[in-house]
Amino acid sequence: MESEIRLGILGPGSIFRRVMTDMPRARGVRVTAVASRSPERGAEAARICGAERVYTSYEELAASPDVDLVYIATPHNFHCEQAMLCMRAGKHVICEKPLALNGEEARRMAACAREHGVFLMEAMWTRFFPAMVRVRELIREGAIGEVLHVTANFSYRATMLPATSRLWSRELAGGGLLDVGVYALEAVTDVLGWEPEAVQGLCKKAETGVDARFAVQMLYPSGATAQFGCGCDVTMRSTEMIYGAKGLIEIPEFWHPTSFTLQRASGETETHTFPPENEGHHYEFMHAAECIRQGLGESPVISLAESIAAADIMTKLRREQQIVYPQEQK
Questions:
Q1: Do the Cβ atoms of 84 and 107 come closer than 8 Å?
Q2: Residue 270 in contact with residue 261, Cβ under 8 Å?
């Protein structure tokens, strides 16, 4: 019988309810504690997820003997500090995407995990859907031949939100790139790898100084190319296209896919469908739990090297557009 991994939630904010929707399906994982600086929010979160412990400080959660794994669910600019707090206390960590504000922070987090012998993973939940697992298998099997080009877009319209909202705030590391662009970027790196030789980006800035929209293109040493778009001022169709020498794969809503279409060079087309999910976050927690049981320090599906590289690419894109957050200027 597999050992149960006890999960603590740090910061049960807006993403929390979505993540918890399918958690009862996460075999071998049980939510035992939540930590919120608001006692009322903490009590409500505990009711939702069935947690036995409610802490009013993150330090208490990090020190809790009833928690093995902590899920960091706070805004981007707090990830590094809070993840390291937990890892220094010997806790394993799943940290919401993006892993860190920039590449420098991501490296510090990875070094902290290794120093303290704990597991650390970016919560790139899209990687763990059965549809994406099958897509990777087909690519490895050569179903579409050598991959030559990948495209992915993830953007939505949030212009109705006030300038003080997290999405538009420089102080809270707002902007479309870190909010949803990370999904499109890591859809590309999942297929082509995290070492492109050239990355170019164009940006439309918001009045608050964060990015409202990015258009990015990448070139790999193999000659493969990629393009991705992201933003929070326009709705784009969230489709990933993977073009190979012998066919293509089309993945609608690639960030929570329930189907994809494979078209072979012969013209033969086949559609693969999978059961719909409420949200599907439970897959990543089951994966993390299994990694912890095996004594792994990182995930073989979304490695720390890849998360660091993604943070580096996004940092480069932002800084080329003079988008620097206050925390980075200290």
A1: no
A2: yes
The residue whose two tokens read 């990875």 is 110
- 108: which 2 tokens? 């510090």
Instruction: Show the low-confidence residues of the chain (pLDDT under 70).
Output: 1, 330
Q: Do domains 5-124 and 130-276+311-329 have the same CATH topology?
A: no
In this prediction the pTM is: 0.95
**Residue 285 CB coordination number (10 Å):** 26
- Cβ atoms of 120 and 95 within 8 Å: the answer is yes
- How do the domains of the chain map onto residue ranges? 5-124, 130-276+311-329
Question: Phi, psi at residue 150, to the nearest 5°?
Answer: -135, 135
Name the percent of the chain in helix, strand, coil, to the closest 5: 35, 25, 40
- pLDDT tens per residue, range 90-106: 999 999 999 999 999 99
CA 37, 43, 48: angle at the middle one, nearest 5?
120
CATH code reported for the domain at 130-276+311-329: 3.30.360.10
CATH topology of domain 5-124: Rossmann fold (3.40.50)
